[in-house]
Amino acid sequence: MSRTFKQRLAAIEKKPQSLTGLGRGIEREALRVDENGHLSQKSHPYAFGSALCHTSITTDYAESLLEFITPVARTVPQLLDYLNDIHHYVAKNLDANETLWPISMPCYVDDESKVELAQYGTSNVGLMKTTYRHGLSQRYGSMMQIISGVHYNFSLPDDFWAVWAEIHESELEGKDLQSEGYLGLIRNYLRYGWVIPFLFGASPAICKSFVQGKKTLLNFKTLGDESIYLPYATSLRLSDLGYTSSEQASLNIVYNSLPEYITSVRAALQKKSPAFKSLGVKKAGKYVQLNDHILQIENELYASIRPKRVLQEGETPSQALDSRGIEYVEIRSLDVNPFETIGISEEQIHFLDLFLIWCVMRPSASLNTEQALHYNANFNSVVLEGRKPDLQLEIEGSRKSIAEWGAMLSAELQQLAFVLDKNTTGNHYSEAIKHISGRFSQTELTSSARVLSGLTGQSRSKCSLALELSKEYKKQLIEQDYRCYSDAYFEQQQELSLKKQALKEKSDTLSFDDYLHKYFTDAKK
User: Fold this and answer.
1) Which DSSP category does 293 fall into?
2) Strands 99-100 and 227-229: what pairing?
3) What is residue 125's three-state secondary structure?
4) Is the four-CA dihedral 310, 26, 207, 245 of positive or negative sign?
5) How far apart are alpha carbons 306 and 443 in whole angstroms?
6) Per residue in 302-319, pLDDT tens?
7) Residues 206, 208, 212, CA angle at the centre, nearest 5°?
8) pLDDT-based confidence at 114, cuts 50/70/90?
């Protein structure tokens, strides 16, 4: 029997412990820049230990692109404590003239060759990580790869899945039950995930240097001498100019069941790319990319949401999912929040909790290829013109304005917030949706509109405003106190990470060629 959202919520409300103990984690990326807002040319700071092995502080694409990783937190205050403490330690140990770039789109970069790839040492696993990044630079250019974002990792407690099974009258158990539920969440996220860039997208403007030599049909407006923008854009980071890949448009990733998802990802991994083949795999005895497929490895699959499982030694993501099922989902469509020192607000976290629980509780039919493409087109429309007054989206056969869809969503999220708040101290969820819901009809309240207003109102460039914020945020972060960690903790992590990297380098027995051959052979199993 198919139940409505209201009926499902009533079943959850009878067992309040089912939504207690949500799992949350954050990965925040941030560029190190010098006092003029230019990309730092200095190596990964020694105080941060090994980028390969550190548990909290690593690098993403570039040596200057830091990534902060929190442990799994069971409460929102705990999550914020983790993230604040990492930022505090990093700010204190940055070079005196360096700051963290507080927005998603890159700073002043006049020459892509100045972007140094992240370095992970001489172990085979470290060399593979750097080689993979070299492949990305050859395929897409380095400008695309130094865009920053915030990833939100989310999981539901075991008690929830017992109630979910009752609601769906499912005979599935354990990992099969959870995997089916998370895939339903993902399909609804594909339908409605446009709300994330609409509400929280904060990159309607970019530096002119970002589009040097790139062809675009977009009608950009000029803002000062350095910036260009689209009047109704929400997140250019998520557009074709940002962190997406048109080469991957032909990949048909299926989210209707875990076997179908794994099969489609593995098929994508084997798909050849004529364009990437022309680059070669090796030149003068050195790898320029790991292979000439559309995806070098699974991490190259760009998606707004991913099913995830913590990896064991030597596993690929799809092997982990195949073996033990989906453990959590990773939300990848959040811009860095330029109005927060740590790139995300408490209010955003509460909204994300609400929205993702709503996605898993709401009925979620399977998606065919045509539907998936349609919802991707909706997402792209919101990214480029989400605040356009007459924009309408078609979802599940209904065509409505953003304001109308927002009213429907807000009404159901308010009901869910009431249930969640009964299990916590305070009315944080109700307050979050109350404060955010107005943005669907008053687009000037969205993050992207606030960014544009700040730029046009002060007649200044995106870069100069960001540089000013970066300096102010560094000062604030240094002045704050630790909440749960300490200098001693991070110093210990630095030492342990360096020892772990040295051990990896010492214990390698295969040549790099043999290591890659074994990796890709094992990945097919």
Assistant:
1) B
2) unpaired
3) helix
4) positive
5) 28
6) 999 999 999 998 899 999
7) 120
8) confident
**Whole-number Å distance between alpha carbons of 60 and 50:** 13
Q: Which residues pair with 26 in a beta bridge?
A: 152
Q: What's the one-letter identity of residue 504?
A: K
CB atoms within 10 A of CB 462: 27
| Tokens matching residue 116 | 């140094």
In whole angstroms, give the CA distance from residue 501 to residue 517.
22
Can you tell me the distance from the alpha carbon of 274 to that of 272, in angstroms, rounded to the nearest whole number? 7
DSSP helix/strand/coil, 395: strand
**Could you tell me the end-to-end alpha-carbon distance of the chain, in angstroms, rounded to an integer?**
38
Name the β-bridge partners of 221: 229
Residue (of 134, 133, 179, 188) closest to 156 by Cα position? 179
* Structural domains of the chain in order of their starting residue, each with its CATH number: 5-523 (3.30.590.20)
Backbone Cα Rg of the chain = 23
Are 170 and 180 spatial neighbours (Cβ–Cβ below 8 Å)? yes
What value does the mean pLDDT of the chain take? 93
SS3 398: strand
Half-sphere exposure of 505 (CA within 13 A, CB side): 14
Residue 38 DSSP one-character state:
B
Rounded to whole angstroms, the Cα distance separating 342 from 80 reads: 9
Q: How far apart are CA 304 and CA 194, in angstroms?
A: 10
The pair of three-digit structure tokens given for residue 408, joined into one six-digit string = 């429907």
DSSP single-letter state for residue 340? S
Handedness of CA 35, 40, 46, 49 (dihedral sign): positive
Q: List the one residue out of 3, 279, 330 whose CA is nearest residue 154.
A: 330
* CA distance readout (Å), 172 to 164, 246, 366: 11, 37, 18
Burial class (CB in 10 A: 0-12, 13-18, 19+), 479: exposed
What is the rounded average pLDDT of the residues 147-159?
A: 96
H helical segments located in 201-300: 258-269, 274-277
Evaluate if residue 452 carries a pLDDT over 60.
yes
Q: Indicate the pLDDT class of residue 76, thresholds 50, 70 and 90.
A: very high
Strand intervals (E) in 156-241: 205-207, 221-223, 227-229
* Residue 1: pLDDT over 50: no
Measured between alpha carbons, how far is 478 from 473 in angstroms, rounded to an integer? 9
Rounded Cα distance, 80 and 346, in Å? 8
CB atoms within 10 A of CB 397: 5
pLDDT at 458: 67
φ, ψ of residue 335 in degrees (nearest 5): -70, 155
Query: Which residues, 6 or more positions from 343, have their beta carbon under 8 angstroms from its beta carbon?
Result: 28, 30, 102, 150, 336, 337
